[in-house]
C-alpha cells in the first residue's frame, strides 16, 4: 500500500451569510495515497471546490466554521495557524484553478510569478530560480521557454497559460496537486492535452492528484478513485471501474446518462437530470437527491448513510435501494427511458 | 427480491412522492430585490436619507418660516430698524462711526435664538436682512440648483452615453471628443468662465431668453459642466454591455436601435445612474456654493448658501454665525447625500467584508 | 511605442487647439450683446470701446476674430483693460504661489490618501473602518472655501488662536521657514477633501482586488500576507489612484485651487482669476482658463503614458 498522504475525516464547512447558514460541505471523508489520482465529481454548488480550497486553507474567513479534520502527514491542517498553513501551501500542496487568464496576475511576467513561488519556500537566488522556472516551463511543454519565460500572461494562449499555472504549482515539488476544474475554460482538444500532462507530471514528480470536475469524461481516463458529491455530501465513492460499470447512485446514473455516447442509439433529446440542486440554506429532509430522483420511495424521507454493501465491496453509496433493484433499473435510467420525477 | 417492506415500489408511487415534494427550492430573486434587502439593513444610510429629506422639507417651508416666525422676507433690509430683545429695543444694525475716539464698525446684531420672538434667530447681515430666513431661502435655491442641475446633467449624459455606446463609429468619436474636450478644463474654472460670461448679459440664443440674475444660469452651467464626468463612465459601461450576448440576441431578433437602447442597455446601467445621481447632487450643491462664493453663480440679491458664506466672510470675526450657518447647512446636506449614496452603492454592488452574527 | 507616443501627443495638440476655440466661443460668442463693451469692462470709455472693437476684430468676420484672439494670447499681448495690466505677466507672477500650494498639498494628499485607503481596507467591516469612512465623507462634504475660512478664522486671525499667519504668500527663496508656515494651513485645507476621496477610492479598489483570482493564486503559492498585499493587491489597486492623482494635480495646478488661494490670499493664478471674475474682467479669465486647460491636457498625456508603463496589457507590442 502506497504512502497515505491525505486523510479527510468528516469534514464540514459552514458559512454564515446574511440569508442564513450555508452548509457547503457536510461530513466529507476520503483518503489520498501517493501516486494516485482522486477525482471529485459534482455539479456547481455540490461543495467540491469548497472542499479543495479548505484543504488549502483558502476558505478561512471571519464567517466560516470548520469541523472534522484534514490530516496531512499526521497533522490536522484545520488546526494550524495561518502562518503555519502558509508553509504548506505551494510547498506541500499545490493548486491550479479554473480560469488561467484571471488566475495569473496580468502585470507581472510569467517567469516572475514562478520565481516568486519558488522563492517563497526555497532558498534560491533569482538566477537559480529563473533557471528552474525555464526548466519547469519546458517540462510542461511550453516551446521556447527561455524566451517565453519573460512574457506576460496575456501573451500566452489559454492552454499555455494553464500549463504555466501547472508549472508554477509544481515548482516546489508538492506532494499533492489539486486541480480545480483545470480544463473547464479550455477547448476540448486542449483539454485532453492538459489531462495527459497532469498524469505524466504526477509520475515525474511522484505526487498525488485531486482532480475536481463536473465532467465525468475528464476523470474517466486519469482517476484511480472517484467520489461523487451532491449537496455538500459524498454520495458515492468507488474505484474508477466500479463507478463506471456498476454505479450505485441514481444521481451518478443521471450524470452518466447525460454524456452523449457514440456506442448507443442516438436519443431524441440528451438526457438530463430534471430539477435543480437544493438550496444549501434550506435543505430538504431525508435524502438530498430525493426531489429529483425518479426512483424515490417512502424510505427516502430518511437520510441514508454512506455505506458499503456486501455486493459491492470497497464501493460506498448513499441510497436505500437494494443493489439488485438498482442494477435492474439502472440501464434504463442511463439510457433515458426511466420515468422522470414529476 | 429484497424490497423494503414499507411500500410497493411502482411507477405511480414515484410520481406520487414527487408530487408531495416539500423541499425548498432555490428561489430566483431579481438583483433589485436583493439590493433593496441589503439597503434595508443599512440603518445608517437610511438615517442619512431621512436627514436629507428633512433638510429639503425645512427649506421648502421657507415662506412659512418667513411669514409666521420671522415676519420678514429674505431680501428685506432692516438697516435702520430696531427690534425688541427681551423687552429692550436694539438697533438691527448698530451705527458705526467714531465712538470715544475709536473707529467702530457698524455691526449687525448677532444670533438672538429665541430672545426676539422669532426674529433674527441667527442674527442679521450687514444689510439688516434676517440670516435665518435667508438661510432657508438660500437652501431652497441651492437645492433647486443642485437637484435640477443633476437631473438635467444625468439625463443628457445617459442619452449621449447610449448613443455613443450603441452606435459606435463616428457618433462615438464625436461624442467622446466632446467629453475629452471639456475634461480638459478644470471644472471650477469652466464653471466660472461660463458663469461669469453669462452673468453679465444673460443667455439669449436659439430663441431662449434667460435674464442675467436668473437661477437658470448657474443651473444650466453646472449641468453642462458635469455632463462629461457622468457621461464618460456611463459610456464605458454601455460599451461593455453592448458586447454581451443578450444585446446581440435582441438585435438579431430585429429590435430597433431605440428598443435596444431603452429596453436592454438602459435598465442595466440604472444602478450606476442611481448612484451617480445621488453623488452628483452632493457635488453640485458644493459646486454651486463655490461658484456663488466667487460671484459666478447666483447674483445679488438672490440668496444661496455659497452666496451667504461670501457675504458673511467679512464679518467672520465679529459675527461668525453668518458664515458658519450656511457652511454647516452645506456639510449636513452633502454629508447625508454622500452617506446615502455610499450605502446605495454598497447595496447595488456589495463587496465589503461584514461580520455576520451566527 | 513611438507611434503611441506620437499619436497621443498629436491628439493633445488637437485638444489644445479645440480648447482655444472653446474659450473663444464661451467668451465672445455665447453671451451675445456687445463683446467690445464686455471686454472693456465697467469703466470703458466710448473711445476705448471703439479701439477694442477694432483691435479685436469685432467689426470683422468671425474667423478673423478668432485669429486675432489667438494672436493676442500667444504673443503675450492680452491686456486687461480694467486693470491696465498684461494678463500673461500677471499669470506668470502668480505661478510660484500656485505651484508651491499644489505641489505641497499634492504630496500630503497622496501620501495620506493612500495611508487611509490601506488602513480602512485592512480593517474592512470593523468599526474603525466605519469611523474612517465617516471622517472621509465629512472631509469630502466640506466646501473647501468654507473650511479655509473657518481655519483662517479660528487658527490664524485670532478667533481662538493665532498659531498660523493670516494668509499671504512668502517666496521660498525669500524665507523658507515662512514659506512653509504660510502654506501650512492652505495645504491642509486643500488636502482634506482629496484625502477623503482618495482613501475611499483606494479602499474600494483594494476590496475589489482582494477577491480577484490571481490573489487567490498568490495565496495558494504560500506567499506571506504582506507580500500579497504589496506585490499583488496594492500594485493593481494603486493604478487608478495614481492616474486620478495625475489629473487632479494638473487641475489644481492649472488654477483649480482658486478657492483656497482666494481664501488665504496667496495671490496665485487662481486668485487672479477670482478677482477678475468679481470685476467681470474677461481677458484675464480667458487667459487663466486656457492656461488651466493646457496643463490638464499635458498631464493627461503623461498619465496615459504612465498608465501604459504600469499595465502591460495597455502597451502596444
Descriptive tags:
heterotrimer, A: 342 residues, alpha/beta, four-stranded antiparallel β-sheet, 12 helices, 12 strands, 24% strand, B: 358 residues, mainly alpha, two-stranded antiparallel sheet, 6 strands
Give the largest interface pair and sizes: B-C, 54 and 61 residues
Mean pLDDT across every amino acid position of chain C: 81
- Number of distinct beta strands of chain B: 6
Portion in strands of chain B: 5-15%
The number of strands of chain C is: 2
The helicity of chain C comes to: over 70%
Mean pLDDT of chain B: 79
Distance between the termini of chain C: 7 Å
Main sheet overview of chain C: 2 strands, antiparallel
Which class do the helix and strand fractions of chain B yield? mainly alpha
Oligomeric status? heterotrimer
Radius of gyration of chain B: 29 Å
Overall geometric form of chain B: elongated
Residue stretches of chain B low in confidence (pLDDT < 50, at least 5 long) are: 1-15, 17-25, 351-358
Fraction in beta strands of chain C: under 5%
Number of helices of chain B: 12
**Strand line-up across the major sheet of chain B:** 1-2
Count of DSSP H/I helices of chain C: 13
The gyration radius over C-alpha positions of chain C equals 24 Å
Instruction: List the secondary-structure elements of chain B in sequence, H or E.
Output: HHHHEEEEHHHEEHHHHH
Order of helices and strands of chain C: HHHHEEHHHHHHHHH
What does this structure look like?
The complex is a heterotrimer of chains A (342), B (358) and C (317). Chain A has helices spanning 48-56, 82-88, 100-103, 110-121, 126-139, 145-148, 158-170, 188-205, 216-222, 240-245, 250-257, 323-334, and strands spanning 4-17, 20-33, 37-41, 64-72, 75-76, 93-96, 176-180, 208-213, 225-230, 233-239, 307-309, 312-317. Chain A is of the alpha/beta class and 342 residues long. In chain A, the strands form 2 sheets. Chain A has an 8-stranded mixed beta sheet with strand order 6-7-8-3-9-10-12-11, with helices on both faces. In chain A, strands 2-1-4-5 form a 4-stranded antiparallel beta sheet, with helices on one face. Chain B has 358 residues and is mainly alpha-helical. Chain B has 12 helices and 6 strands. Chain B has helices spanning 11-19, 31-40, 43-60, 62-70, 131-167, 169-183, 187-201, 216-242, 245-252, 257-294, 305-313, 321-348; strands spanning 82-85, 88-91, 97-99, 102-104, 203-205, 208-210. Chain B has a two-stranded antiparallel ribbon with strand order 1-2. In chain B, a hairpin with a 2-residue loop joins strand 1 (82-85) and strand 2. In chain B, helix 7 (187-201) crosses helix 8 (216-242). Chain B is elongated, with a radius of gyration of 29 Å. Chain B starts with 10 loop residues before the first helix and ends in a 10-residue tail after the last helix. The model of chain B is unreliable at 1-15, 17-25 and 351-358 (pLDDT under 50). In chain C, a hairpin with a 4-residue loop joins strand 1 (79-80) and strand 2. The longest helix of chain C has 36 residues, at 87-122. In chain C, helix 5 crosses helix 12, helix 7 (144-156) packs across helix 8 (176-210) and helix 11 (258-264) crosses helix 12. Chain C has 317 residues and is an all-alpha fold. Classes of the chains: A alpha/beta (342), B mainly alpha (358), C mainly alpha (317). Chains in contact: A-B, A-C, B-C.
